[in-house]
Amino acid sequence: MSLPFLNDFLSPYGLNVSEKKAEAFNRYMALLLVWSERMNLTAIREPRQIVIKHFFDSLTPALSPHFSPRGRLLDVGTGAGFPGVPLKIMFPSLELVLLDATKKRLMFLEAVIDALHLHDVELVHARAEDLAYDVRYREQFDQVTARAVASLPLLLEYTIPFVRIGGRAFLLKGPSVQTEFGDGQKIVSVLGAAFLSEERMFLPEEKAERRILWFSKQKMTPKRFPRKGLTKKGSSS
Ligand code: SAM
């Protein structure tokens, strides 16, 4: 099965999916479908919907001038690899770290990395709020991202500590981010970051709205962040 429509969706934005990359997306989809029969990876099983709601959606940050196609990128709460793996397929120079608190999902990602022959990808099994205190990861990333992991204030606390000074965090959210933004704004500067921009996108065909929030890291995050016991307070949706 080829994925010409991923190219159709991306080429108007100047992104081209080569044969080799389309093949990698195909293999990724095949693995996603097979493994989803055994474990909870995605509720979406229709190939075209996977292309739109997982692959295209994961690549939307790359349509922004703030995105860098190289350097170290951390995907917090990556699950079945979104948005980290599609970004890595499209931009092989990225040094990718995929972080998740669920071991089973990392086993799936190990199979994906093997099958797609992806290089410079590290899998980390940990909770973000614990890993952020590891000096090998804290303030070490050029870019940090997360999709569908938590509400905005919590997500900022999970991601900003990992961003190096001068680096970026980009968070993939839906329209509900508007209601989360009030609380989120307060904590941005406390964490040492500044709000850069909000980009609105619509997924092809069904026109579901997506918002990408960009933040830049200005100074070091105070040592007390992320706070302990965060998950008890925040949503994990
Ligand atoms: N980002 C993927 C996506 O968009 O399809 C997965 C989203 S899934 C709803 C949320 C994922 O975040 C789960 O795999 C869960 O294990 C992980 N997660 C939730 N809280 C986390 C935390 N504090 N640290 C690391 N991973 C976390």
TrEMBL record:
GO terms for cellular component: cytosol. Keywords: Cytoplasm, Methyltransferase, rRNA processing, S-adenosyl-L-methionine, Transferase. Pfam families: GidB. It is an enzyme of class 2 (transferase). InterPro entries: rRNA_ssu_MeTfrase_G, SAM-dependent_MTases_sf. Its EC number is 2.1.1.-. One of its GO terms (molecular function) is rRNA (guanine-N7-)-methyltransferase activity. Signal peptide: none annotated. It is found in: Cytoplasm. Its main location: cytoplasm. S-adenosyl-L-methionine binds at G77, F82, D100, A101, T102, A128, E129, R147. Specifically methylates the N7 position of guanine in position 535 of 16S rRNA. PANTHER family: S-ADENOSYL-L-METHIONINE-DEPENDENT METHYLTRANSFERASES SUPERFAMILY PROTEIN. Belongs to the methyltransferase superfamily. RNA methyltransferase RsmG family. This is Ribosomal RNA small subunit methyltransferase G. It comes from Candidatus Carbonibacillus altaicus. The gene is rsmG.
